[in-house]
Design brief:
By secondary structure, the protein is of the alpha/beta class. The protein is built from 5 helices and 9 strands, in the order H-E-E-H-E-E-E-H-E-E-E-H-E-H.
Length: 168
């Protein structure tokens, strides 16, 4: 009987965690969709496609971002959300999403990039030094941190309104 109860509790814990994680990714995707209004890339007017790379295969965040952003317009450019499995595929992206736990693996390639790429991470314990936006949970709520100095180094313009909404 004790094993059965433990199994039920474990099953509920797993369901809760999966449900909670799916909710976080849905909220992150909504945030990112709204961020697009507050970000400007150099020569944005001449872009026909904005490539948004999501590092990792089969991630829930890729599915959410595809649903919310793939095929949508930013100015005259169309957003194309793609899965990226190798750091060599980072080039050509205007946006990169690096899921929790993958920052260390991608760090060297991302620090070497000097192009106008908006890098978004979701590290709870730190804000990677190459990341412009980092999602983290603060007091049970999803928030984002913003490093405008890195955006400026990459020639990406972030509106003051988005800067004001960021967590300190």
């Amino acid at each position: 009987m004790k094993k059965k109860i433990s199994g039920i509790v474990l099953g509920l814990f797993v369901i809760f965690n999966v449900s909670g994680q799916m909710q976080i990714e849905r909220i992150e995707a909504s945030y990112i969709a709204n961020f697009m209004r507050y970000v400007k890339w150099p020569n944005q007017e001449s872009l026909t496609t904005i490539k948004f790379g999501v590092y990792g295969k089969g991630t829930a965040i890729f599915k959410e971002l595809s649903t919310k952003l793939d095929g949508k317009n930013v100015g005259t450019a169309i957003i194309k959300v793609v899965e990226i499995s190798d750091e060599a595929e980072f080039s050509g992206c205007q946006l990169l999403f690096i899921p929790n736990g993958k920052s260390y693996k991608a760090k060297k390639a991302l620090k070497a990039m000097n192009s106008a790429v908006l890098i978004i991470t979701e590290e709870q314990d730190f804000h990677p030094d190459y990341s412009i936006i980092n999602f983290k949970v603060i007091n049970s709520k999803l928030a984002f941190q913003l490093r405008n100095n890195i955006a400026e180094e990459r020639n990406i313009s972030i509106s003051s309104r988005l800067q004001q909404m960021a967590a300190q």
